[in-house]
């Protein structure tokens, strides 16, 4: 079969038609990448464990059709146990600790570079009668069955969540979905009908080399989530571009301030300006995509960012700086485990409902970790009705201004 008739596309970053690329110039060597993203989605390990023979077959088929002089597999050192099998098949291997760094050395004239999944797709196209393109995707977050799945292109994000991951964690609802790992775009609950294809996801700037879908429920703080994304991406930069090296880190610091009650006027416009500068001024796809999570998050959850920075409010009660802790009187059984507080902010006794003094509490969360009843809760701008002093466990009701059950207000005489 001629290569022009092979109807597959690359499974790397942008999903371009492979036949067009093969015919674009003369190729001498093939390098097959097995890139594992920093988020450790496990997709590459899944490929090696389940489809190594098929990938090798695809590499050999392409070598024969393009008359290449050599083929090579680029592996991270953690997958060195697979090196011998490649060598036994006559395939060279290179091991590295820095997958992104070594790619600079291999993208040279005459070297054809492909993602491992593309070689699997080639094998399936050549050996199967009804080839259907799939993508190996890890689904994480607030879902019933997180894991790695082979997803046919074209189904919606909602179908991936419901059909493969078996829906959202019980008692929760979807707030947003991130598609594409640490550099993936944010999709709101009204965008879950977005089809899982390169063309639809690229519109938001998503790169699918890291095929990871994270499902976040309504108790997720989008500002804190974006802050953690920018920290991860700041560690991925090679440091060559000043915009990339400094810009991503500055975004992280601004977001960190926003989660700690230190946000300042103009922070939102400054972040948008930095995001746009990264898209226009960096030299590689990593730099251009590094701010995509934040940019799309601000576009779809702008009000939540404004509340953090301007009003110092975290609606999801995730950011410690914006919350206070209390012990739910309906759940407290007076066991006393929470008395481990190093600041002695918890008052109570045996079989008494315990009370946290917010003026003393340092928010270390030790009481949260030891409470077997999950009675230690958070509150924001609205304080719940609580007893003013420790009272017998099970006796307090929020009704009647917090009086004990069965007791009326004393009459004045």
UniProtKB/TrEMBL annotation:
The 4Fe-4S ferredoxin-type domain, residue ranges: 323-351, 352-381
Disordered: annotated span: 393-413
Domain of life: Bacteria
InterPro entries xrefs: 4Fe4S_Fe-S-bd (IPR017896), Nuop51_4Fe4S-bd (IPR019575), Nuop51_4Fe4S-bd_sf (IPR037207)
SUPFAM superfamilies, per database record: 4Fe-4S ferredoxins, Nqo1 middle domain-like, Nqo1C-terminal domain-like
Alphabetic keyword roster: Iron, Iron-sulfur, Metal-binding
Protein name: NADH-ubiquinone oxidoreductase-F iron-sulfur binding region domain-containing protein
